[in-house]
């Protein structure tokens, strides 16, 4: 008999534990559902956060004074506007804009700027050395200058190169003295800076 009693008690405990384990996911689901419902309710019925506003009430005199101050600051100053209307602006410029004829009108820069600033040119205009401003040489032309001077230094002197490419002779001399082309296969001419 006692054995059956113990067996019943064990069965009851196992049943209770099984019910608890079976209800646990359902209770979690219900908790999530309740939380979602609270979130949805807060989205629908918005509540403003409490403000730390002091409970100070203004008197009628203070309110009227502030209103009159705002009205005075927003009112236009007639005296100042009347003074502005009396001001006349005179100019030394000609009456109308200068009209250019078709021959005078061009989309090129003025010569003063052209001599000072480099002009961005297309590949077609770079082939003509006459269109490049004085003192400016594209990189491929510099490489050609170095290559030709290296092959025939007597024919391609600094004087000839400066005349051909509209450069100062002193600049061309310095350029030829201080620069040289390096052959990719010749590793002896490449000097590495070991301090870096």
TrEMBL record:
Coiled coil: none annotated. InterPro entries: NDUFAF4. GO terms for cellular component: mitochondrion. This is NADH dehydrogenase [ubiquinone] 1 alpha subcomplex assembly factor 4. Belongs to the NDUFAF4 family. Signal peptide: none annotated. Binds calmodulin. Interacts with NDUFAF3. It comes from Ciona savignyi.
């Amino acid at each position: 008999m006692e054995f059956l009693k113990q067996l019943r008690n064990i069965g009851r405990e196992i049943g209770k534990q099984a019910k608890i384990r079976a209800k646990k996911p359902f209770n979690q689901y219900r908790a999530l559902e309740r939380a979602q419902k609270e979130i949805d309710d807060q989205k629908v019925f918005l509540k403003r956060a409490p403000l730390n506003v002091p409970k100070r009430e203004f008197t009628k005199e203070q309110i009227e004074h502030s209103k009159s101050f705002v009205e005075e600051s927003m009112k236009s100053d007639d005296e100042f506007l009347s003074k502005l209307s009396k001001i006349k602006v005179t100019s030394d410029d000609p009456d109308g804009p200068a009209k250019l004829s078709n021959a005078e009108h061009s989309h090129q820069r003025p010569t003063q700027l052209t001599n000072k600033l480099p002009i961005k040119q297309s590949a077609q205009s770079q082939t003509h050395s006459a269109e490049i401003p004085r003192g400016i040489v594209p990189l491929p032309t510099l490489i050609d200058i170095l290559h030709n001077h290296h092959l025939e230094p007597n024919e391609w002197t600094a004087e000839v190169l400066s005349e051909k490419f509209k450069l100062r002779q002193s600049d061309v001399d310095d350029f030829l003295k201080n620069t040289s082309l390096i052959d990719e296969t010749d590793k002896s001419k490449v000097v590495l800076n070991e301090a870096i």
